Amino acid sequence: MSNIIKIAYFQQDIVWENSGQNLEKIDNVLHMIEDGTNLLILPEMFHAGFTMQPEKVSEGMSGKIVKWMKSSAIKHNIAIIGSAIIDEDGSYRNRLIIAKPSGEIEFYDKRHLFSIGGENEKYTQGKNKLINEVDGCRILPLICYDLRFPVWSRFRDDYDILIYIANWPESRREVWKTLLRARAIENQCYVIGVNRVGNDNQNSYIGDSMVIDAKGDIISSAKENREELVIVDINLDRLSAFRKKFPVWKDADNFKIK
């Protein structure tokens, strides 16, 4: 039998700076996910939108957002990934959180902060990547602007799926689609890009959430400009066979990041 992981991703229309309404919306989505799904992926800042007023919606790691992620993962027996605005040690973090059905919590703080939009003035930069396992599948989850910096995602025979969660505006949609395919091809991995739809106080978002295989082919996508839950099966045996047949990754440069 093939080694399959079933992944759900939610192309969400985020309610601006309203954690309560966004969590309620995702609660309804969780009831729609079929049994046996291993992972649900939510967009960047799924509870508030890409706000530069973190003081209005931030919480600590013991706040209701992380508690909700943990309890939902346990209740629905599914790992959940999304980023939240976390207040820690007197500074704000754009923090990607993985909540697992076991109750375990892991996190990654966004490394590449979008200075053009002032994110670096409001949030503290992360330093370390997080490679984690979900039901035996190795994943590297990153956030939005990280997509533009390929060295940070360089494959070293250490993950199978590269995930980008985002609030990526419609005005740069072709960049989003092009770079997602590039990351899949150069790293010989599956890439999942989960973006939002709708509008905030600055930008419109069309979505373009998708799953791309190691050859750069789109194998799953959400409908344009529509809030939608999509579930896809990812074949890890097929990925392994391709990497063995065409092991380009072995010839990659050994970049070192300080």
Task: Please give a structural write-up.
It is a single chain. 21% of the residues lie in helices and 29% in strands. With 258 residues, it is an alpha/beta fold. The chain has one domain: Carbon-nitrogen hydrolase (Nitrilase/N-carbamoyl-D-aminoacid amidohydrolase), CATH 3.60.110.10. The chain has a 6-stranded mixed sheet with strand order 5-4-3-2-1-14. The chain has a 6-stranded mixed sheet with strand order 6-7-8-9-12-13, covered by helices on one side. The longest helix has 15 residues.
Average pLDDT:
96
Please, how many domains? 1
Give the distance, in angstroms, between the N- and C-terminal Cα atoms: 42 Å
Helix residue percentage:
10-25%
Pattern of helices and strands: EHEHEEEHEEEHEEEEEEH
The level 1 CATH classification is: Alpha Beta
Number of strands: 14
Shape: globular
Helix count, DSSP H or I runs of 4 or more residues: 5
Report the sheet with the most strands, covering strand number, pairing sense and barrel closure.
6 strands, mixed
What is the secondary structure topology, with strand pairs?
Elements: E1 4-11, H1 19-30, E2 39-41, H2 64-76, E3 79-88, E4 91-99, E5 105-109, H3 119-122, E6 132-134, E7 137-143, E8 161-165, H4 173-187, E9 190-194, E10 197-199, E11 204-206, E12 210-212, E13 218-221, E14 228-235, H5 236-245
Helix pairs in contact: 1-2
